[in-house]
Amino acid sequence: MATKTKKTDKSTPSKSKEEKNIQGRKKSGVKKSQTAGANGSAKKGKTGVEQKSATKTAKPASKEAKAKTSKKTAKKTGAAKVKKGEFSKETYLQWYETMLLIRRFEEKTGQLYIQQKFGGFCHLYDGQEALVAALATAKREDDRVITAYRDHAHPIALGTDPKYVMAELYGKTTGLSKGKGGSMHMFDKEHQLYGGHGIVGAQIAMGAGIAFADKYRGGDQVTYCYMGDGAVRQGILHETFNMAMHWNLPVIFVICSSELRHGIVNPLQHRACYGVICLLGRSFIRRGSGFSEC
Ligand SMILES: Cc1ncc(C[n+]2csc(CCOP(=O)(O)OP(=O)(O)O)c2C)c(N)n1
Ligand SMILES: [Mg+2]
Fold it and tell me: How many angstroms separate the alpha carbon of residue 208 from the centre of ligand 2?
């Protein structure tokens, strides 16, 4: 991300809407996880597409020189298109890279599971990769993430080396949860991933609890709480939404259907289901509260 060219270089990715939003809550500078890509390139010190553009555009220069480099950069990266759209080309590439990494990882995981190389459960996330890839971009380094049992993709999107996820599947001590959790219980302290939970809906209340703790301590972190559409029918969701609304908790509930996998969605059923979820969500929108639909 090109943060230093904010005033002069309007065509650089730094102007894109999502990056502005990310920086809105930031206390100082752009953090590593947002600049270097969500696929672990920050951790490994690789030069991600965003890093490249940042180094190219961050050089101090005169106004004329800056204008020239901005045109050149725009030509090379296609950043000029950002003016019309909301996201930069770099961001799209970053998302694609993350989605592809997750898909390839899960394809291999599925094969190994069928070959009975590891035991326990194995829930895949294919078809839902875009969700974690996009939200990993929005997430600040210290924001929290909690999800259900379909959780291989989350640590990968957050920047964990996939080998630690695979080690967890194999029950190795080098795994994310020291081999004690397996497929459904991926935890990653470094990336603020609070699991991986097997009980449908359990993470809903825990997500709100984490958000409450942050608010209570005076922090400005946000908790991303993922759930499947089936979890919406759990009673705890209603209790949690109610409390989150009243206490104005910094928690984002992300609901996604695993039926998106392989495009097996029945459009009518799908629409009906999401219609109900939207109505339910709307009933918790209160004036002055942070609740809103998207
Ligand atoms: C409290 C509870 N009830 C039932 C189950 C059994 N169960 C496992 S997966 C599942 C479906 C959950 O659907 P959804 O939340 O939409 O997640 P998806 O698998 O579609 O991602 C159920 C009912 C469970 N794990 N926990
Ligand atoms: Mg579902």
Answer: 21
